[in-house]
């Protein structure tokens, strides 16, 4: 769930933002439908260097009893501590980690690997590799996404949230190759994000892409695909998805 | 009839989530680091995330270990969550050997990095898995009294408990075919490797049950 407080928003290629609705209502609905976890990305914080998501995190932690990961504009141990205090279980860090990789190590040492989720925004290069971008896909880092994932695993990241900038918001399917490359390079779980258009896309990225978890945004925001439909498709392909 | 639950605050863990889950189940919650309140609690919850040694160290630095043991000696309901559960055992092998509270005999050691067929699998285990009854474990008088085998709860861990006694093993889950301890019990003392406060309605049933133990 991309947040531009107080709204839930959605874009294409992480741009062209539209207001979807009240994130609290969506969070409650997804919880009731059996979502395994909620993921909030404060898309404004990283850009304007401020954080506006605290109230929403507190509301969610008080009313929704599944894990909550919060990212966007997390730059320091103090930012992490604040979000955890507000009720986040895990914190996703992308931009600040690419500028200061030691932050990954410091967060995992101070708060545990279990709460240090590395965000990677992967964009295809012409040569079959991917670059890790930052600032919601606006800026280059020159980092190879797969190498960067490996490096951050060594620094103590406990999980990777992997977004394909190319596929994000397109509904044309996940970047299965990117997912497989990262998932096989590390021993920590990889959550793939960006591009779900059909339930077959979900099956493909788990089966071929070796995704450990799948993040879904606008398919749910706009009621295009129900959680039950995903559950049915997963079950038919022997993928375990818990019932609500 | 749900009652009073005291949550130990030792600077580690998502206390707000634990507190809210119990409040949602109509318990009266006290979050405290006061040793005398802990020792006199009706029911005690010790959460915990991160590394075992760090958690035990924080308890020790706050002089809370004696008061927790004073509480547990009374036989009142105790619940350890995640690393809080692992600390109920004698010893952990996470980053060197660290002594736990010794409420249940056994060790904490790393989850095997390969599955039952020898293929590598992801560590930490993060995600949902169904609770299963190991052997002849009886759930009826326990925190799992309202839980049905197969109902899924949320785990995030790299290390797992190995109680010496099979009878301490209340529930398992299966990771790529191999059983991993999900819950332990000794009398009125319970431990959950999973996070009941983050396991949706299934978890809340467990939270509610503990509040009425």
Name a few traits of the molecule.
heterodimer; A: 244 residues; alpha/beta; TIM Barrel; 12-stranded mixed sheet; 11 helices; 12 strands; 39% helix; globular; B: 213 residues; 6 helices
Task: Write a concise synopsis of the structure shown.
Chain A has 244 residues and is an alpha/beta fold. Chain A has helices at residues 23-33, 45-48, 54-63, 77-86, 95-99, 102-111, 145-155, 176-185, 199-207, 218-221, 227-236, and strands at residues 2-4, 7-12, 15-21, 38-42, 68-71, 90-93, 116-124, 130-134, 139-144, 159-164, 190-193, 213-215.
Strand order, sheet with most strands of chain B: 2-1-3-4-13-12-11
Q: Span between N and C termini of chain A?
A: 20 Å
Shape of chain A: globular
Question: How many DSSP H or I helices of chain A?
Answer: 11
Low-confidence stretches of chain B: none
CATH class of chain A: Alpha Beta
CATH domain topology of chain A: TIM Barrel
Output the structural class of chain B. Answer: alpha/beta
Commentary on this structure:
The complex is a heterodimer of chains A (244) and B (213). Chain A has one domain (2-236): TIM Barrel (Alpha-Beta Barrel). Helices cover 39% and strands 25% of the residues of chain A. Chain A has helices at residues 23-33, 45-48, 54-63, 77-86, 95-99, 102-111, 145-155, 176-185, 199-207, 218-221, 227-236; strands at 2-4, 7-12, 15-21, 38-42, 68-71, 90-93, 116-124, 130-134, 139-144, 159-164, 190-193, 213-215. In chain A, strands 1, 2, 3, 4, 5, 6, 7, 8, 9, 10, 11 and 12 form a twelve-stranded mixed β-sheet that branches. In chain A, helix 9 crosses helix 11 (227-236). The two termini of chain A are 20 Å apart. Chain B has 213 residues and is α/β, with parallel strands linked by helices. In chain B, 23% of the residues lie in helices and 30% in strands. Chain B contains six helices and 13 strands. Chain B has helices at 15-24, 35-39, 52-61, 65-72, 83-86, 200-211, and strands at 4-8, 28-32, 44-46, 78-81, 91-92, 98-99, 106-110, 125-130, 152-157, 159-163, 169-175, 178-186, 189-192. A seven-stranded mixed β-sheet of chain B has the order 2-1-3-4-13-12-11, with helices on both faces. A four-stranded mixed β-sheet of chain B has the order 6-5-7-10, covered by helices on one side. Chain A binds chain B through residues 31, 34, 36, 58, 61-63, 65-67, 84-87, 89, 111-115, 158-159, 187-189, 212-213, 242-244, and chain B through 14, 16-17, 20-21, 24, 49-51, 54, 113, 120, 122-124, 126-128, 130, 152, 154, 156-158, 195, 197-201, 203-204.
């Amino acid at each position: 769930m991309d947040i531009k407080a107080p709204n839930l928003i959605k874009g294409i290629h992480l741009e062209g933002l539209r207001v979807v609705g009240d994130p609290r209502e969506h969070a409650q609905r997804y919880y009731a439908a059996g979502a395994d976890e909620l993921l909030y990305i404060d898309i404004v914080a990283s850009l304007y260097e401020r954080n506006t998501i605290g109230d929403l995190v507190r509301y969610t932690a008080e009313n929704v009893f599944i894990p909550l990961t919060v990212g966007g504009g997390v730059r320091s141990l103090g930012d992490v501590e604040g979000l955890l205090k507000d009720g986040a279980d895990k914190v996703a860090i992308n931009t600040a980690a690419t500028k200061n990789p030691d932050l990954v190590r410091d967060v995992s040492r101070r708060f545990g690997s279990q709460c240090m989720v590395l965000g990677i925004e992967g964009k295809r290069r012409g040569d079959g590799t991917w670059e890790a971008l930052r600032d919601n896909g606006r800026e280059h880092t020159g980092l190879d996404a797969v190498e960067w994932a490996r490096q951050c695993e060594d620094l103590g990241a406990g999980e990777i949230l992997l977004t394909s900038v190319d596929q994000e918001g397109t509904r044309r399917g996940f970047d299965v190759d990117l997912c497989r490359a990262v998932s096989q390079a590390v021993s920590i779980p990889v959550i793939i994000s960006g591009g779900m258009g059909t339930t077959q896309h979900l099956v493909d990225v788990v089966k071929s892409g070796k995704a450990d978890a799948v993040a879904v945004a606008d398919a749910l925001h706009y009621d295009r695909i129900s959680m039950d439909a995903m559950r049915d498709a997963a079950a038919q392909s022997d993928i375990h998805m818990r019932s609500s | 009839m749900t009652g009073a639950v005291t949550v130990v605050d030792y600077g580690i863990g998502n206390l707000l989530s634990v507190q809210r889950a119990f409040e949602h189940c109509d318990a009266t919650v006290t979050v405290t680091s006061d040793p005398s309140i802990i020792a006199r609690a009706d029911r005690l919850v010790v959460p915990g995330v991160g590394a075992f040694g760090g958690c035990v160290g924080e308890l020790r630095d706050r002089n809370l270990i004696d008061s927790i043991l004073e509480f547990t000696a009374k036989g009142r309901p105790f619940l350890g969550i995640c690393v809080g559960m692992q600390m109920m055992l004698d010893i952990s092998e996470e980053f060197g050997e660290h002594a736990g509270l010794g409420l249940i005999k056994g060790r904490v050691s790393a989850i095997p990095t390969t599955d039952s067929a020898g293929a590598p699998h992801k560590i930490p285990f993060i995600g949902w898995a169904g609770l299963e009854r190991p052997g002849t474990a009886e759930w009826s008088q326990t925190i799992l009294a309202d839980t049905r085998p197969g109902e899924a709860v949320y785990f995030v861990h790299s290390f797992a408990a190995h109680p010496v006694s099979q009878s301490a093993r209340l529930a398992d889950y299966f990771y790529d075919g191999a059983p991993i301890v999900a819950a332990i019990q000794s009398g009125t003392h319970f431990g959950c490797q999973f996070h009941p406060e983050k396991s949706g309605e299934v978890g809340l049933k467990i939270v509610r049950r503990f509040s009425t133990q």
